[in-house]
Amino acid sequence: xxxxxxxxxxxxxxxxxxxxxxxxxxxxxxxxxxxxxxxxxxxxxxxxxxxxxxxxxxxxxxxxxxxxxxxxxxxxxxxxxxxxxxxxxxxxxxxxxxxxxxxxxxxxxxxxxxxxxxxxxxxxxxxxxxxxxxxxxxxxxxxxxxxxxxxxxxxxxxxxxxxxxxxxxxxxxxxxxxxxxxxxxxxxxxxxxxxxxxxxxxxxxxxxxxxxx
Length: 213
Known about the structure:
Blueprint: E1 3-4, E2 9-10, E3 21-31, E4 37-47, E5 52-59, E6 64-66, H1 69-72, H2 76-79, E7 83-84, H3 85-96, E8 100-103, H4 106-113, E9 122-124, H5 140-148, H6 159-212
Parallel strand pairs: 3-8, 5-7, 8-9
Antiparallel strand pairs: 1-2, 3-4, 3-6, 4-5
């Protein structure tokens, strides 16, 4: 179980380290001549109980121009002995395979990793309807403050804290969230079956009409 205070998300330390649900958060650094292009600088994965199962700094393929320390928390010393991008990409892909992926604005993290994940297995807190405000997405720090009563991203971001916040938001909405996905899948399957039947019905009607004539 989780322990929640006004400042810190504290995971359990007495439960298994892995599970079918994994939350991910990434921090970016700036590359290219002006540093405007984002590249992966750190990636963190936590399990459903908030325990860290992967946390690595990443050495980008391109030269880092801006470490964006005030947001990313990443400093030059952090990347000196960091793993190379391809190694991290491979390790993360293996950990995510076959699991539910939880996070906030995951499209950005997956893009930075040059990975994809089955849409049916993605739980993005920036896109879950009940967490939107009049159809508009909220920042993770606002969701954490409103629904969890915790303050995050106050200065340098901590990907461990952000991943834990996303996971806890998911866990607190899991029952309704999963039901909405199942209902949507059933509706899509019903529509698909209806569409497949229509050509057959038309063919039968045409054949019948020809025979009668």
